[in-house]
Write a structure and sequence with these properties.
With 509 residues, the chain is an alpha+beta fold. The chain is globular, with a radius of gyration of 23 Å. It is an enzyme of class 6 (ligase).
Length: 509
């Protein structure tokens, strides 16, 4: 089927604008989706595919053979052993699995190969439908230095910085020339997810910090190119969700607050942010303008750092994939972002226009990672008991089930827990109930105690926080961890009695 549209074509060098009338664009039909991921992201994609009656294929490594996402899919293909390079990062095996399972489309989820332009191009070259932005845009935005240049050309404010840094002397000279004070941040140019980022507080830390950042960048992204930026003290991370089609229709779905982080990785997000409405409108329009300028398609996110003291925001990066926290945007808008991605991949225009999008609720998300809440050390093992929260205004994306092992080879996220309400205070009450009243989990340690302590903190409730909040209040937060209650003890006793009743007297008794 062909659709006729008048399209504004703007090349990526931003030098040419051409209006092409009566352009023919063929709609493609997705018959089966292979999800090139595992755990929570794989399950999330499969939920929407089920809604749309589209069969799915799961891929799995050897330790994931009994994983929840494998059981949820219509077809499952083994692609390798535990190391990601042999399985979830093996592009050729994933494409082979798609062909073998008669899947004609691939969705990468988030993480692993989601922002790998070479993988996206391989999918297209294999005659499959890529559910995501164009490979050339992924490649363009994956280079933080080039992305920052494009933001500047688009009149989007950027953080003061220096690029292609190779020596401590370069950094010192730049700081003196531009009168930049400590702290500063050294960042991997090809980075993401908090990897290859080192904060520097004094001159004597520069050389070691530069070496560390370049080493981490080389290890994680096979590219040791780094840049250095002014570190915004007490900044807040604000991001804008964008969806766009092949016909230059770009729509923002409002903003999200992603400020609360540990080790440069988010653990609590909320939508919309607590920005004033005029500032929110400005930052959302700015994000949409940038994405239109680069010819973006599918779903993506523009990240900014907001400086409360000056009420200024600066461009950080474009995430050319589905974000972990997209679910809270869905809760406040009533939209299914994954479904929109499927529409765009099929060559359809966006099902919405900007004036159709209304954010009339508030939502928060917490990330349940298998980690010690006091040290953030991984806590891998078997989930011996799991009861997911239920009740009004609660949404759960569960990447693992009771009896399943959390392996040490992959990201420790195993559940996303979201809550919504008529306003922020209402959403916080629902989230508190979900974590403290309904969630039951045994066998591994999780961030749940820390998350509960965070959402009960007076400053968080008041919206008074920054990216340094956890670091500055860690001892206070730990002291607020809920101790085991009598109810918890009664549950354990009841379980013990039930086991004895079922098995009879034991020899050790």
């Amino acid at each position: 089927m062909y659709l006729t549209y008048a399209i504004l074509v703007r090349n990526l060098t931003f030098g040419i604008e051409i209006i092409e009338k009566d352009t023919l664009v063929m709609q493609r039909s997705i018959s089966k989706v292979l999800v090139a991921n595992r755990g929570v992201p794989a399950v999330r994609i499969m939920h929407t595919c089920r809604d749309r009656k589209i069969p799915t294929t799961a891929v799995y490594s050897t330790p994931d053979r009994l994983a929840y996402h494998v059981r949820m899919a219509d077809t499952a293909i083994h692609i390798g052993e535990a190391p990601p390079i042999e399985s979830y990062l093996n592009a050729d095996k994933i494409i082979e699995a798609a062909i073998q399972s008669n899947s004609n489309a691939i969705h990468p989820g988030w993480g692993f190969l989601a922002e790998n332009a070479d993988f996206a191009q391989k999918v297209i070259d294999a005659g499959l439908i890529w559910i995501g932005p164009k490979p050339e845009v992924i490649r363009l935005m994956g280079d933080k230095i080039r992305a920052k240049e494009i933001a500047k050309q688009s009149n989007v404010p950027t953080v003061p910085g220096i690029e292609n840094v190779t020596s401590a002397e370069q950094i010192i000279e730049w700081m003196q020339k531009e009168r930049v004070a400590f702290p500063i941040m050294i960042k991997a140019a090809a980075g993401g997810g908090g990897k290859g980022m080192v904060k520097i507080d004094s001159t004597d830390q520069i050389a070691a910090g530069l070496a560390q950042a370049r080493s981490e960048a080389k290890k994680s992204f096979k590219d040791d190119t780094v840049l250095v930026e002014k570190y915004i003290e007490h900044g807040r991370h604000i991001e804008v969700q964008i969806v766009a089609d092949e016909y230059q229709h770009v729509v923002h779905l409002y903003d999200r607050e992603c400020t609360l982080q540990r080790r440069n990785q988010k653990i609590i997000e909320e939508a919309p942010s607590t920005l004033e409405s005029d500032l929110r409108q400005e930052i959302c329009v700015t994000a949409a303008r940038l994405m239109r300028r680069i010819g973006y398609t599918s779903a993506g996110t523009v990240e900014f750092i907001f400086e409360p003291s000056t009420q200024s925001f600066y461009f950080l990066e474009v995430n050319t994939r589905l974000q972990v926290e997209h679910g809270i945007t869905e809760l406040i808008t009533g939209l299914d972002i994954v479904s929109i991605m499927l529409d765009v991949a099929e060559g359809k225009p966006l099902p919405i226009k900007q004036f159709d999008v209304v954010a009339n609720r508030s939502a928060l998300e917490v990330r349940l990672n298998a980690e010690d809440p006091k040290t953030f050390y991984p806590s891998f093992g078997t989930i011996t008991h799991l009861r997911a929260p239920l009740g009004p205004n609660v949404r759960v994306i569960q990447g693992a089930a009771e009896g399943e092992e959390i392996p040490p080879y992959y990201d420790s996220l195993f559940m996303l827990l979201m809550a919504s309400g008529t306003d922020r205070a209402d959403a916080l009450r629902v989230l508190d109930r979900a974590i403290s009243g309904d969630l039951r989990l045994e066998g591994i340690k999780t961030l749940a105690p820390l998350l509960l302590s965070l959402i009960r903190h007076p400053k968080f409730i008041a919206g008074d926080f920054s990216t340094k909040f956890i670091e500055e209040h860690m001892q206070e937060l730990v002291s607020g961890f809920r101790e085991r209650t009598g109810e918890d003890e009664m549950l354990r006793v009841a379980r013990y009695v039930a086991e004895i009743s079922a098995l009879g007297p034991q020899g050790w008794m």
